[in-house]
Description:
This protein is mostly helical. It has helices spanning 11-24, 37-44, 48-60, 79-105, 110-118, and strands at residues 64-67, 71-74. Strands 1-2 form a two-stranded antiparallel sheet.
Amino acid sequence: xxxxxxxxxxxxxxxxxxxxxxxxxxxxxxxxxxxxxxxxxxxxxxxxxxxxxxxxxxxxxxxxxxxxxxxxxxxxxxxxxxxxxxxxxxxxxxxxxxxxxxxxxxxxxxxxxxxxxxx
Length: 119
């Protein structure tokens, strides 16, 4: 049997994915400022180089704007960013549909228990 060669996921791609999830789930909103590079590096447990590469990628996707001397901010959702978000939403959509389906059948404190597993 032949296997496909796996491509390792780079650290900055994992950082980008986490920040994108926060943006598209509205945990980070338009105009919110990201923590400074040093703080992000500490929070993610990576080098500042990985953080810089992640910010560069997010900037190319139109999700953040870098204002030198001020910081990095969540920016307008450009058409390019919206196309990208559609792909992300298609990945997480089934999870939310399941959440809705099961919680509508729940009784009493069951719904809180169900929601706690998805949040």
